[in-house]
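My convention is simple: the sequence line spells out the residues, with the fold written below as integer tokens. I include a record here:
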Amino acid sequence: MSYTSFEKGEIFEKFVESNLFPEHQYTLIHRTDNYEQNKIRFSENTLLPDFKFRHKITEEEFYIEAKYRGKFDSDDRLEIMNFNQQKKFKEIEKKENIKIFIVLGYIGSPHKPYNVCLIPLSKLKYPRYYNSYLKEFKIDHSKFIQFDSLQLYKNLNINDNYTTKKEVINSNEISLKENITINKIIDDDIVKTQKQKINKKLLVTIVASFLFLISLLYFSVFNTTSIENNLKNKVRKYYTTLDFGNINDLDNYINPTVDNWYNKKNLSLSEIKTQTIKYLKKYPKRETEIQWDSFKVTHLHNNYFVSYKMIYKILQEGKVNSKIYHLKIQSVWDKNLKLKSISETKI
């Protein structure tokens, strides 16, 4: 069956909305009017990206523009977005301070393309790109998009801090070279005297800057590692508390009110305790095995978004065989390292 370009676009938009940003993970805030609606009366919201979503766990918002392309052009490139639309979207991103992403589907059917890319708007500088560039942004579109893959916030990564410090040092060296070049304009006799003074000052400045940056790096590495280790210990103790059925100890791990508790919203700690007691009675034997190599921490303002995978075994009362689940956990912990939100996905 053949479709018009507008129909292909709308089919792909439905794929993006339903498959990549499903309702159980993301709240749909905005959807632009389609072609038929705009024929009757044009809506200004059509100038916005196709979707605006809010992640249900972190409450963070972002825009998505869906683009489907059936084939490469004669130069083996795909046209993603023209300069005018790029300019408009970058203005929106700056004005609203909300990140915009392009979800590009290409080759195959708009119902389910062979390739799907998730591209930050900031990575687009030209209208058309070769497949070699697009490969960098390819995602597994058989699953919904995880929040941490959007990278709305910088992950707590020691190497990032090291890179930043190197860039600062390089910047200082460049500035020093520029100063020396300027001094060449001065009279030869003055230059000789001035250079001696400047070199001493520069040497002192470089040494002081280096020591300062090393201390910052040490503090940053120590602080980052400390936060991640503290969260790991907190998560480990939280599951140990649950496995042993120590309900009263949940006060040490859970906020008085929780925004999301798996499939429920806005529960109090007392309600969570009541539900947990019923759950432990139904499943008297439990075993949690966290896959620590998947443990990931992202700083969210005053909170921490924590995701990890785990193997969970439960034995229902009166049953002989245990059930085994492979789960992806997404959670938000506040600055006091207490749970604000948690959800799970079977993998």
Summary: Confidence is low (pLDDT under 50) at residues 154-187. The two ends are 34 Å apart (CA to CA).
